[in-house]
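Archive entry: two folds, one per protein. Generate the first.
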Amino acid sequence: MTPYYEHDGITIYHARCEDVLPSIDPADVSLVLTDPPYGMNLKTDYGERGRGKWAVAKDYPPVAGDDEPFDPAPLLLFRRCVLFGANWYGSRLPDSGSWLVWNRETGGADAADAELAWTNLGGTVRMFTHRWNGALRESERGFSVHPTQKPAALMRWIIDRWTKPGDLVLDPYMGSGPVAQACHELGRRYIGVELVEEYCAVAVTRLRQQTFDFDGAA
């Protein structure tokens, strides 16, 4: 399969992950880090609120696969995984004591106080605090594209802690590319897969803006 983008150790495929995963040797992958569809049937038309400077399409489609239960089994073929939203499909995962907690500091009744990621990395529960609440975001202010977007700062924290420079990180549900951005900044190799081409384009734009200060974006 021809990559949508390939440069400096970063490879992106515009495809279904089911079509790409069989071509990847699990032994080559140091970490699977991804935010798969949770089966929540999310609404994704954020036109009334605006999508910031990074928007590339007028109306984004629903999250692909989010209208059915998520099966994590294909990802468990890889030896080390960090899977966000796993509290929605935890019954289909092995027991683990090494969950990650992202404290969003939302301070509101409508949004979750925190988000969880299941891991098989070993060790105990770890927490990363990074405010992510509309205009009160600690980073990437004004940058909102994917409805379940996570901050690149969160992904940098995970990648820096559990991988080494040159390691390969796999993200089968890439979205708008925060894991790709973090890998690029930290010198990790990366393979990302995304079904929606608009999100692929946003991820490539992020990668090409090498001197852009995301943490200081207004």
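Generate the second and append.
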Amino acid sequence: MKVAIIHYWLVGMRGGEKVLEGLCRLFPSADIYTHVYNPDVISDVIKRHKIRTTFIQKLPRALHWYNSYLPLMPLALEQIDLRNYDLVISSESGPAKGVITEPEALHVCYCHSPMRYLWDQYFRYLEDRPIYTRAVMRLVFHYLRLYDCASSHRVEKYIANSRYVASRIQQYWRRDAEVIYPPVDINRFTVTPENDGYYLWLGKVVRYKKPDLAVEAFNKNGRNLVVLGDGEQLGVVKRMAKKNITFPGAVDDAAVTRYLEHCKALVFSGIEDFGIVPVEAMACGKPVIAFGRGGVTESVIEDSTGIFFHESTPDSLNQAIKRFESMERHFNPTEIRCQAERFSEALFMDRMWNVITEAWHSKFGANLPIANGLKSASADRKVV
């Protein structure tokens, strides 16, 4: 059996690439196709595979301007020759699912999110752009939405990374999706009951993650906040922050682990499709104070592993912080860690294997052919 994995772009190691690592371990002989690829920032797990790019890679400054080439990506996907593959897995957040497959192949899509800039965050993205580009964006995005809906029917089985994303797949594409949560490297973290007295905000510092909301709240309450990460909004939030808020910037994985293990609690102020960072915090036994919408409501248990605030305002966040501090001693680090273990990589791989084999049997009435090295990898997995 030959397997191809289609991933939108490989320019960093974020949540989508962590899922790709899990797929690479599940299918160690799979080939990977992507629009652009920067090997300097990609893990060895992924780089062990044969990686092929579309013609987007050859365009000027593609590694930096790849988002500007979005209108060309549907055409680029349709130039990928997949005739020799039995199983095609598209990893969808940017354009990936629009490939053309053979009738004798099975196409499974793991959807991190329908493209936000085409759908639920379309008007927010317009606001962020200069006025002279908005007219062009309105026209181009109109046709991209038509393509997005049309290409959704090229997939035979959808898997969503949360119930929140599954509901959006149903709304925009009118397709059902099974939910398999993304893999989290739980073993990378240890439970640390003590803390150094600071709250932690961690992630890409971009507008939709609402770092400004956290900064405004801590400007008011005077507590110590560490904002860890970089992004286009970093300069904005730095200028508005008071002295009780620090910005270490982008750090390596070991430093991220230390900050998580020694924080008082994680502050999660945006709406995410799933949100791996809250699970990583819980793997350290740390509670999560989160805006109560999106995928985080499926991983955090209120008053057991965290606290939700329900209005996207600094005052609502500060009320949640006060509530957390009034009951902080009731949070059990061991119980919080147990909740995080529900999202382990072993469980992700086991569920992916089961869903793919069931989809194969449903289409072809036969068992999934086993590739060299795949059978032993699947047999060694343990269900959590």
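Annotation attached to the second fold: Confidence is low (pLDDT under 50) at residues 375-384. The chain has two domains: 3-183+344-379, 186-342.
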